[in-house]
Amino acid sequence: MKKKTLLILSSLLLLAGMVVAGCGRPSGSATASAGAGGPLAGKRIALVMQMNLGTFSAQYISGVKEEVNKLGGQVTVFASDGDLAKMAANLDQAVAQHFDGILTDHGTPEALQKGVQDAVSKGIPVVAFDADLKVPGVTVLEQGDKQMATSVLEKLAKDSGDKGNIVKIWVAGFAPMERRQIAYKQFQQKHPNIKEVAAFGTASNNTALDTQSQMEAILKKYPKKGQITAVFAAWDEFAKGASRAIQQAGRNEIKVYGIDMSDEDLQMIQDPKNPWVASAAVDPKDIGRVQVRYVYQKIHKDQTPQTIVLKPSLITREQLPKQKVTTDQLHNYIKDWGSSQQGIASWMKK
């Protein structure tokens, strides 16, 4: 009986030693994997969105869910329907529920600052996308908005022979839009023979439909061929609405140049009868994936930069095949599309 008791005690001591050794392992250890059975498995990630609108948002959410699932966690999406007060309340709710990590999508500093600071003070890692936040410890992702706007506008200038009249569709109050506007102003200075004849834009729950109506009014104001050369649409929802209005009016001389990319956008650009001919973008799934990688780095106690700039691509109709393709196939035609390695830490690979 005594020998049996000693054997049990020895086994318990050995097991305790193994537990202590496991708990004492450095966070940067190669064995600290986030796979389904790793120590980072089962983490709860909140995604707090200003708007969940259109196929771009759908593919962005898909990228977030895909990467969190790969790392063994689960996602809860808080949609705010474009309401900043609701977004602030959703963020407060995510903090109160003490998620392991919080991702934010768009929003303004005024709406997010307090909730983000509360999260950080409670030790909840936060990674923001397209919000002009400056909170110590918070990483902010941007799409390289100035580069996107510049690349597509230079394509417009080349196609138009560096002259003509253009319509700008843009809206203030969004960090990425403000950065795109800076590039637009620089473009105007560089290309004085390209004149802006109209500018409008509103963000709503029916942005594409509202844009279509507004573009129809512009076309009636400028009914003659040559009065409008092209449209610069600073968001794909704007490009969709403008393209539909132009196509329905039979104004095939007007070309549309947009920003952002989704499967729906791609189909429109591939259609030779559609006025939308080019768009600059980052793969929305990649945006979600990269954002998740950085919040997991923070959970893992890694040091992360304050700002991450994602590299965009220019997609033009000339680059694409005649047969229909999806954004998942776009890497076959557009270099670096959908294959960003940003944010992949060495421990994630292991």
Query: What is CATH's topology name of the largest domain?
Result: Rossmann fold
CATH architecture type of the largest domain:
3-Layer(aba) Sandwich
Through-space gap between termini? 46 Å
- Poorly predicted tracts of residues: 1-37
Q: Helix/strand/pairing class, anyone? A: alpha/beta
Question: Could you explain how this protein is built, in words?
Answer:
With 350 residues, this protein is α/β, with parallel strands linked by helices. The chain has 2 domains: 44-142 and 284-303, Response regulator (Rossmann fold, 3-Layer(aba) Sandwich); 145-281, Rossmann fold (3-Layer(aba) Sandwich). The chain is 43% helix and 17% strand. It has 11 helices and 12 strands. It has helices spanning 2-23, 54-70, 84-96, 109-121, 145-159, 175-190, 207-221, 236-248, 263-270, 284-299, 346-349; strands spanning 44-49, 74-79, 101-105, 126-129, 139-142, 164-169, 194-200, 230-233, 255-259, 276-281, 307-309, 313-316. The strands form 2 sheets. It has a 6-stranded parallel β-sheet, with helices on both faces. Strands 7-6-8-9-10-12 form a 6-stranded mixed β-sheet, sandwiched between helices. Helix 8 links the parallel strand 8 (230-233) and strand 9 (255-259). Helix 7 crosses helix 8 (236-248). It is globular. The two termini are 46 Å apart. Mean pLDDT is 89; it is low at 1-37.
Features:
alpha/beta, 350 residues, globular, Rossmann fold, 6-stranded parallel β-sheet, 11 helices, disordered N terminus, 6-stranded mixed β-sheet
